[in-house]
Amino acid sequence: MANPRRSNPNKAASIYDVAQAARVSVFTVSAVVNKKSHVGKKLRERVEAAINELHYRPNLLARSLAKQRTNTIGMVVPDIANPFFPTVVRGAEDAAQKHGYNLLLCNSDDILEKEESALELLLSKRVDGILLTKTAQDFTPSMRRMIAEVNTPFVLLMRTYPKLTKDAVITDDYKGAYEAVCQLARAGHRRIGLMGGPLKVSNGKARWQGFRDALEVKGLAYDPELVMEGDYRIESGYRGGHSLLSRRPDGVYVANYLMTVGFLKAADEMGVRCPEDFGLVSFDDYPWLALFRPRLTTVELPKYQVGFEAVELLLEKIVAPRRQGVVRMLMPELRVRDSCGFRLHMEKSRSEGPVSGVNSES
Amino acid sequence: MANPRRSNPNKAASIYDVAQAARVSVFTVSAVVNKKSHVGKKLRERVEAAINELHYRPNLLARSLAKQRTNTIGMVVPDIANPFFPTVVRGAEDAAQKHGYNLLLCNSDDILEKEESALELLLSKRVDGILLTKTAQDFTPSMRRMIAEVNTPFVLLMRTYPKLTKDAVITDDYKGAYEAVCQLARAGHRRIGLMGGPLKVSNGKARWQGFRDALEVKGLAYDPELVMEGDYRIESGYRGGHSLLSRRPDGVYVANYLMTVGFLKAADEMGVRCPEDFGLVSFDDYPWLALFRPRLTTVELPKYQVGFEAVELLLEKIVAPRRQGVVRMLMPELRVRDSCGFRLHMEKSRSEGPVSGVNSES
DNA sequence: TTGTAGGCGTTATCAA
DNA sequence: TTGATAACGCCTACAA
Fold first, then answer.
1. Inter-chain contact B80–A86, Cβ cutoff 8 Å?
2. pTM surpassing 0.90?
3. Residue A37 CB closer than 7 angstroms to strand D?
């Protein structure tokens, strides 16, 4: 039986305390708080007075326990300090907020063990659904079992995973990479290299495939010597830059922002200039890229949208668990600036007509 | 009385289900799970078997309710999409993790109403402590009451707040600004302007004061015409840039990174060159600043440390609530590069001796 | 419209 | 060492 006595006065008031103070039952208090069931004006006012008097604040833990719903969404990202993710998280936050949900955030650092303990934690906290940007490594058997047993909905972000992907929100990385390389080709480059992401990650693979197919369509050679596999971090872009640039490509597609940062640092150290010595197209855009020299030609990814739509999709699944899986694919957008060497190219050969399908920034 | 029957088989197993399956009491299960109280080997093994069998995962909601502790820390930041905060959050995350705590994150957008509802939410979720980067606006009476009534420990981040500050982790912004302006003076600038933060925010004030005092020490005039008050966002730096640069300062201290981004965009549009036409010192450093032209002279703030130490301080308060308040102040670090015009200056006048107190980057 | 009491899944206090 | 059983604070049939 629950405690009907006024509890310790220097701790938060409970619904019982309010009920007692207002001389009503806990049901009435609950009804007032949740605006359910009509409560007579007189009692309602007494309850409201007591609530103010005692500074009553419903305990969401207890409510969640009783209702079997936490109104909380768990989110696992590789690293919130990677500038890509904050905007995704913000989009998710806003969508969650809009529907009365909150976000519980975890970092995996792209390490399987951390991913596992993060998921374990979120499930223990009984979140209503989970947003996951999968690590490069495969799930362990125990993780697979965990996900199968539990009936918490999952939505994958940015990366799909064959053994789990029913629902996901991703960007069309194949197309983005394809267009990036086409742009390099249009700018007159022939010996094009790739500073790519992990091939074990779906979007690393997709970007690589887009790169490859674009070369083929443009009648250019695919040279494995000119393909580097990185891990989306600055350091790998830096090392890859040194290796790749020593092989003298005249164009490079770098598959994410942080690697571009490392890559251009390497170029700087080697005294190789962009875009004079090689053209570059990057992935992902930020307001401050306007201050980079050269200004980067890049493929913008709708980060905020990804987070926002992922939450909306997840909430649909929470409401109607047995729906067909859906993968929502958001479109990237090529933004042509200086680093691809397009302007240089135009000066050299003015004979060609205008290029279509390109959004050139003012 | 709690339910001793095996509950609905397609929902998560409870401690009762485990107890029943292992033919022991819930106490025994609890003891095994928490490694408390010695449990005989035989029973322990039976319990462990049942746990595996049923995929039992303790419900942290129920545990928190019973223990009156959530092992969760609430954190309110203005905007996670502002590149300053992700690293702070990451530092907090790591510290929390280390002590078995988790982070619940909220954005206030520097809007008082959002701050209030965020705090309200965190308290309702019964977090064990709160990390707060205060909004520029004063607390409302109701917020003040809320904080006074509740006995949840608070630690302020980056910004102090006279009416609440007992415990805080901040950076020495006064000193940072002071050194920034000294550096501009050393680089030969005489007509120095300020693109500052909100004066209602403690660090906006401190940076302004540091600016002002440095001018005085250097024997330079303080001209209100050359002082702009922004809000730490790109747009305000952009607008302030247009206004300020039209008054032809030869040096500018910009009090945060995002405003620098806007400021330099304005300079670019106006055809005013940095560092040739004006020297600039910024606040805050990022790996990718290496790609900016000019390379920014800036005052680095120990973002990660701020988050990390704030959590450690908060946890101390959670353990020993009635401690004396402590404000921990972390030191900034001047990083001299090109934008302040120092190199230009050195070329002009080689007569001066070496400058001390400056960490010049390789 | 309002009240009663059982259940949500743990922990913790007393006994045995 | 184990087991009953009362909290923890809220929701919600079912009754009145």
1. yes
2. yes
3. no
